Amino acid sequence: MPGGQTERTLSPREIKRRKILRAAIDVFAEKGYFAARMTDVAHRADVADGTLYLYFEGKEHLLVSIFDDMFSTFIQQLQAEIAELSDPLEKLRVMLRLHLQALGRDRALAHVLQIETRHSRRFMNLFTRGRLDEYLGLLRGIIEEGQELGRFRRDIKPGLATKVVFGAVDELVTSWLLADRETRLEAQLPNMMKLLSQGLVPCEMHDVE
Amino acid sequence: MPGGQTERTLSPREIKRRKILRAAIDVFAEKGYFAARMTDVAHRADVADGTLYLYFEGKEHLLVSIFDDMFSTFIQQLQAEIAELSDPLEKLRVMLRLHLQALGRDRALAHVLQIETRHSRRFMNLFTRGRLDEYLGLLRGIIEEGQELGRFRRDIKPGLATKVVFGAVDELVTSWLLADRETRLEAQLPNMMKLLSQGLVPCEMHDVE
Amino acid sequence: MPGGQTERTLSPREIKRRKILRAAIDVFAEKGYFAARMTDVAHRADVADGTLYLYFEGKEHLLVSIFDDMFSTFIQQLQAEIAELSDPLEKLRVMLRLHLQALGRDRALAHVLQIETRHSRRFMNLFTRGRLDEYLGLLRGIIEEGQELGRFRRDIKPGLATKVVFGAVDELVTSWLLADRETRLEAQLPNMMKLLSQGLVPCEMHDVE
Amino acid sequence: MPGGQTERTLSPREIKRRKILRAAIDVFAEKGYFAARMTDVAHRADVADGTLYLYFEGKEHLLVSIFDDMFSTFIQQLQAEIAELSDPLEKLRVMLRLHLQALGRDRALAHVLQIETRHSRRFMNLFTRGRLDEYLGLLRGIIEEGQELGRFRRDIKPGLATKVVFGAVDELVTSWLLADRETRLEAQLPNMMKLLSQGLVPCEMHDVE
DNA sequence: GATGAATGAGTCTTCATTCAT
DNA sequence: AATGAATGAAGACTCATTCAT
What we know:
4 copies of one chain form a homotetramer. The first copy, chain A, has helices at about 10-30, 40-45, 50-55, 60-85, 90-105, 105-115, 120-150, 160-180, 190-200. By secondary structure, chain A is an all-alpha fold. Chain A folds into 2 domains: about 10-55, Arc Repressor Mutant, subunit A; about 60-200, Orthogonal Bundle (Tetracycline Repressor, domain 2), CATH 1.10.357.10. In chain A, helix 1 crosses helix 2 and helix 7 (about 120-150) packs across helix 8. The first copy, chain A, is elongated and about 65 Å long. Chains in contact: A-B, C-D. The structure holds a DNA duplex.
């Protein structure tokens, strides 16, 4: 999610902006957003306290910026990779793989995005969910496409399916985060794909249902 | 989830304790845990500020107590209702139904449990997740039982399935909460059960997978 | 201006309120409003920093309250004493005497009212001048009455005369304040009355004018 | 008051100095000295923040310089015009006319001189009053001269008369400023001269006094 | 037990000033 | 000379908690 796709040359301003953002991610992940003090972030970024305010409007904006920056980079990458595929199931798999990879690669970032960024309804309504809708929209698009092509079961509302899929991945990430395992997050992908696509109950018993 | 199964007579102390807890739920839901002030809770409960500390150790303990009280009542009810069933799929359905009912019935409580109670890793590790494990254990037990009885697909790790199911319900609740819909939360149950049990992909295409 | 006319018993709250106000007057007079820190006021009043905010909304409100408290007490006294007189010139004399006495008696208060309370247009428009209008209205009333009775020259606009009289007293106070003299402020009254009532130029030369 | 009597050619440095001073007057008048930020002044003057410090020692010096610059120009003009007159009453009239003209012509400047420049005892003692003494000395000289020549009443202390006259004009200016009238300040001069020279009380009633 | 007035530690933010370029 | 990015000291205010009544 971070790095990689950056242009050859970054302006000095952009470099410092990212240094501060990185410091904020690390500090927020370590101490939590509320316990973190602006001065901690400044020290970690190796700048003066006041400098933070030359790049960000305030503490909350720092948190919002983490979300926005990482998210928009991620969504772009997602769209690029998905565009090249035709099979909806394949698109879904790639989407979830990128999701798990992006977060699995950067534990501190994952912390901030999974937890600190969801600390209140106000914050979620104002920031988290707003951005998340782009992701959910992409996901829903894939599901609807799959239904049209007959690759996905048609008797399930795409809105609900979107929530179930997102909820599943999201919980996977959160429990990986909190359990502090050594497992690679991505390793769970095949199993999860099977479960989501085929369900809990074997086919021959579906009539029972 | 609250009330209902309590004994006939509650001690005056217990009555006031619950009054405070209810006030805390409402205030936390309205303003968010951090923005809520102890004095707000006291006013809502119609007691003096200092009185809160005769019943709870402090602000954080108030939040923990909400979780614990509601959760233990809920888990008890869950176990009682499930014990009477034999079919794992039925158990699962009842479990999720109770989950959705309990939260769908009390929006303020749902707010607190879904959001305020998850505001930091520290809090989740210390309180939220600890209590949640009882719920997750119950869920996992049902899934394992289903696999043993051949009612559930055996090629899926029960740990993963537990997370997927919990993640799905959890997300359902959260999006219901944030969207502020008029929908009854419980109404989504049949659709979700179908999706979880049969998966996204129709049986005849499973080989493709 | 302060004290004197207070009721027999003051509530404990009112006592503490006045203690804080007195501390604020002294601190503002010593260090100036802007240089004064809230913690200075709290220390002087012998209360905790936070206690200030139980009695006043903030630093600015402290300054406004000094003005309002002292001014309303003063205006009341003024009206009471003037009501008993009939001669406009006498009324004027009493008014100015009370003015000079009230401020001459309490140098710190005079400092705050003459200087700190006039630090910006915004503050003057919002607070100082608004209150002052009551005083100016009283003054103007006396002048108009004097003109009607033929005791004061009729060819002078009362609005202008009001300003001239107020400006003269006000400047007298300010220069007394800044010169840090030992003179009693009140001692200047007879001279000033003569000047205001008879003017700079002897009568026999008025035609020259 | 500004410009006018300056030499034909100003050094580039002096030009920029004045540009900054003008910017400071406007910004201080608009936002008040304390609320004004150095960066506001720099922007208004169309120079970089740091440049201000190549011309002025700091924010306070900017305010002092406004006072000094404008005042010394004013005093010079005053002395020149008065020197040509012989009648003390005429001198007084010219002095007050110039005073009212100078401020009436430049509202922003008047703001700064009447209000911002008097924000604290420290500032007044250190700067405002010090410069003002030149003005007051001039005024006092005229009054004493008038008394010697028998044109002014001898039974009034010149010090007091000076204060009364200055206070009257000063208040006139301040109330003109705050009332935000459309009146020309200077228009009040004749009336004020009459009041100051002949007093409030008609001659035939002076014995009453 | 209940009260609620008092406490005081804790922190985000502003902005005058500096100095490397 | 001019720039403007960076600095960092400083302080008003909040609010969880206590404790004398």
